[in-house]
Write a structure and sequence with these properties.
This protein has one domain. Helices cover 77% and strands 0% of the residues. It has helices spanning 19-42, 48-71, 78-102, 108-115, 118-129, 137-159, 163-185, 194-216, 227-260, 263-279, 285-302, 304-310. α1 packs antiparallel against α9 (227-260), α2 packs across α9 and α6 runs antiparallel to α7.
Length: 311
C-alpha cells in the first residue's frame, strides 16, 4: 500500500514583505499621492485634457526609452496593438480626464480619498464579467461600507450647498469605475511583460490624445504656464506615471499582487497629507468620516485581518 504522505504536493511559501519592499511600497504610495497634488496645481492653468496629453506623452517617451534600453524593440502583434488601445482608453484617457476635471473644483486630498473606491468597483465588475471572482458575504460588506463612505462624502457637500464640489467628486468617482473595468480588462495581458503593457497603453494614449488635440484645437493659442504648473506636468508624467509603473511591477514581482494592493490604503493618506502641507487644504468632518468608511470597506475586502484572526 502506497504511503499517501509521500505524495503530498509541496505548497510554495506565500510572498513576504521585507523591510526593503515596505520601503518601496511607501515610496509608491507617496508618489501616487503626489499625482493628486501635481494634478491640482496643473489644472489651475492648463485645460484638463491638455494635462492628460502632456502626462501620457512625456511618460510614454520615458518608459519606452527605458524599455528599449533594457530589452530592445519588442515584437508587437496586431492583437496586442488592438487590445492595448482599449486598455489606454479605460486605464488612462477616461480616468485621467475625469480626475483632472474634478480637480478643478476639489482638493488633492479629497480626490485621493474618492479614488480609493477603485478596488471596490473592481470587485463588483469582476463579479459580473468573470466566472472566477464571485461576491461573498465579506466582499458585500466591504462594498456597502465603501458606498456608505462615498454617500457621506458627497452627501455632506451637497447638504452644505457645495454642489460644484459634489459634481467634481462624482467625476472622480466615475474615473474609479473606469479603473475598475480596466483591472478586469487587463487580465487578457497575462503572461506579457507588464512594462510592455504599461508602455503600450501610454503610447496608444498619446496617439489618441494627440489626434484629439489637433482635431479640437485645444492647444491653439496655448501659452506657457507658470513654472509651478510646468513642474507639476513633469511630476505627473515622470515620477507619478513612468517611474511609478516600474516601481509597482517591481513590488509585484517581489511580494505578489495581494501585498502590492496595500498601496490602496496608503495613497489617500499620502494625498491628504501632501495637500495639507503644500496647498493648505483641510478636510471637513464628513470628508474624514467618508475616508474612514471607505478605508473600512477596503480592509474588509482585503480580508487579511480576518484571516489572521482565524489563524
Amino acid at each position: 500500500m502506497a504511503n499517501s504522505d509521500a505524495v503530498k504536493p509541496e505548497i510554495p511559501p506565500a510572498p513576504v514583505m521585507d523591510l526593503a519592499t515596505w520601503g518601496l511600497l511607501l515610496l509608491l504610495a507617496l508618489i501616487w499621492g503626489g499625482s493628486f497634488l501635481f494634478g491640482r496645481i496643473a489644472v489651475q492653468e492648463v485645460p484638463p485634457l491638455a494635462v492628460v496629453f502632456f502626462r501620457v506623452a512625456l511618460a510614454a517617451i520615458a518608459i519606452w526609452a527605458w524599455l528599449l534600453f533594457r530589452s530592445g524593440m519588442p515584437k508587437l502583434t496586431p492583437w496586442f496593438i488592438g487590445a492595448i488601445a482599449g486598455m489606454a482608453v479605460f486605464n488612462n484617457i477616461i480616468p485621467f480626464s475625469l480626475i483632472f476635471y474634478g480637480q478643478q473644483e476639489i482638493g488633492s486630498g479629497l480626490a485621493s480619498i474618492v479614488n480609493a473606491m477603485t478596488p471596490i468597483w473592481t470587485v463588483l465588475i469582476a463579479n459580473v464579467l468573470t466566472s472566477d471572482e464571485r461576491l461573498s458575504a465579506r466582499k458585500l460588506v466591504g462594498i456597502l461600507a465603501g458606498f456608505a463612505g462615498v454617500a457621506v462624502l458627497m452627501g455632506g457637500d451637497a447638504l452644505a450647498g457645495l454642489k460644484a464640489s459634489a459634481w467634481a467628486q462624482a467625476a472622480v468617482l466615475l474615473a474609479t469605475i473606469s479603473y475598475g473595468y480596466a483591472s478586469v480588462y487587463g487580465k487578457r495581458f497575462k503572461g506579457i511583460d507588464p512594462i510592455l503593457v504599461a508602455a503600450g497603453q501610454l503610447a496608444a494614449s498619446t496617439v489618441m490624445m494627440a489626434a484629439y488635440m489637433l482635431a479640437s484645437g485645444t492647444l491653439a493659442g496655448f501659452a506657457l504656464p507658470s513654472q509651478a504648473a510646468v513642474w507639476s506636468l513633469i511630476g505627473l508624467a515622470l515620477p507619478c506615471t513612468a517611474f511609478a509603473y516600474v516601481l509597482f511591477f517591481t513590488i509585484l514581482s517581489r511580494a505578489g499582487a495581494t501585498n502590492v494592493s496595500l498601496v490602496t490604503f496608503l495613497v489617500p493618506v499620502s494625498g491628504v497629507l501632501l495637500g495639507i502641507v503644500f496647498l493648505g487644504e483641510s478636510l471637513s468632518p464628513w470628508h474624514i468620516g467618508g475616508m474612514v468608511l471607505i478605508g473600512l470597506g477596503l480592509l474588509v475586502l482585503d480580508g487579511r485581518l480576518f484571516a489572521a484572526r482565524r489563524t
